[in-house]
Design a protein that fits this description.
Elements: E1 4-8, H1 13-24, E2 30-33, H2 38-48, E3 55-58, E4 61-64, H3 66-74, H4 78-83
Parallel strand pairs: 1-2
Antiparallel strand pairs: 1-3, 3-4
Helix pairs in contact: 1-3
C-alpha cells in the first residue's frame, strides 16, 4: 500500500502539527480520526503498539508520532521517504 496514513484526533495539537508538515509538502494523506471510535483506536494501538496520536505510516513503514515525523524532516530523510510512496 503506497500511501500516507495518519491516525489522529480533532483535539490534538500534535496531530495538527504533523498534518501541517505533510500538507506543506503537498502530500495527500488518509486521516483516520479515532475520536469516539473505540474500534479504530484499538486498531491503531494494535498496529503501532502506541496509545497516543498521531500515529503515522508512510507506505508500510510506521513512522511514529509528530516528534518522529519532525525528526525525519530535520535529518533530511522525510522527503526521500515520501518520494518512495507519493507519485
Amino acid at each position: 500500500m503506497s500511501e500516507v496514513v495518519v491516525y489522529s484526533s480533532n483535539y490534538c495539537p500534535y496531530c495538527t502539527r504533523a498534518k501541517h508538515l505533510l500538507a506543506s509538502k503537498s502530500v495527500e494523506f488518509k486521516e483516520l480520526i479515532v475520536d469516539g471510535d473505540p474500534e479504530l483506536r484499538r486498531e491503531m494501538m494494535v498496529k503501532s503498539q502506541q496509545r497516543t496520536v498521531p500515529q503515522i505510516w508512510i507506505g508500510e513503514q510506521h513512522i511514529g508520532g509528530c516528534d518522529d515525523l519532525y525528526a525525519l524532516e530535520r535529518s533530511d530523510k522525510l522527503d526521500e521517504l515520501l518520494s518512495s510512496v507519493v507519485s
